[in-house]
C-alpha cells in the first residue's frame, strides 16, 4: 500500500461522492445525502468554488478525503472548516486519516488561517480519541443549529 495525498481533481468527484455516501451510512443517516453530482462538481470546480479537498490515493483509487471550506470568525478571523474527513472502511486504522489531517493542517498554516474547526458525533469514540491525540479542544457547550430550505 503506497498512499499518496494530493489536491482533489474534478475527476475524483464520483469517488468522493461514494465516500460521502459511506459516511452517511456510518453516521446512521443513509438517506441524508441529497446533493446532486452536478451541484457537487460545480461547487468544487465551477466558476466560484466553495469547497476544496485533499484526497488519499492508493494507486489510482481514491480511498479517503478531507473536504474543507473557509469560514470567518469575527473573533478569530479566517479559519479552515473541515467538513468531512472520510476514509474508506477497509483502509481505516492504517494512518491515512492522520496523513490527510496533517496535510489539511499544513495547508491551513500555509494560508495563514488562525486555526481549524470541525464537528464529531458524540458517539464516534474512535474519531474523538484520534482528534484528542492532536490536542484538539472538544467543546460540548455549543449546540448545532441548522435551517434547511426545500429546493
TrEMBL record:
Domain N-acetyltransferase: 3-151
Membrane-spanning ranges: 50-70
InterPro entries referenced in this protein's UniProt entry, alphabetically: Acyl_CoA_acyltransferase (IPR016181), Diverse_Substrate_AcTransf (IPR051016), GNAT_dom (IPR000182)
Single GO molecular function: N-acetyltransferase activity
Taxonomy, superkingdom: Bacteria
Keyword line: Acyltransferase, Membrane, Transferase, Transmembrane, Transmembrane helix
A Pfam family reported for this protein in Swiss-Prot or TrEMBL: Acetyltransf_1
PANTHER family assigned: DIAMINE N-ACETYLTRANSFERASE (PTHR10545), GH14572P-RELATED (PTHR10545:SF29)
Family the UniProt entry places it in: Belongs to the acetyltransferase family.
Protein name, as recorded: L-amino acid N-acyltransferase YncA
Amino acid at each position: 500500500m503506497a498512499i499518496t495525498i494530493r489536491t482533489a481533481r474534478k475527476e475524483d468527484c464520483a469517488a468522493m461522492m461514494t465516500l460521502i455516501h459511506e459516511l452517511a451510512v456510518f453516521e446512521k443517516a443513509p438517506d441524508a445525502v441529497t446533493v446532486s453530482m452536478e451541484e457537487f462538481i460545480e461547487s468544487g470546480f465551477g466558476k466560484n468554488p466553495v469547497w476544496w479537498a485533499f484526497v488519499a490515493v492508493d494507486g489510482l483509487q481514491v480511498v479517503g478525503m478531507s473536504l474543507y471550506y473557509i469560514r470567518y470568525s469575527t473573533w478569530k478571523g479566517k479559519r479552515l472548516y473541515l467538513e468531512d474527513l472520510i476514509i474508506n472502511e477497509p483502509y481505516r486504522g492504517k494512518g491515512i486519516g492522520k496523513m490527510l489531517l496533517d496535510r489539511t493542517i499544513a495547508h491551513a498554516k500555509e494560508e495563514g488561517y488562525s486555526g481549524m474547526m470541525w464537528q464529531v458525533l458524540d458517539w464516534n469514540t474512535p474519531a474523538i480519541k484520534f482528534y484528542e491525540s492532536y490536542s484538539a479542544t472538544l467543546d460540548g457547550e455549543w449546540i448545532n443549529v441548522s435551517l434547511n430550505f426545500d429546493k
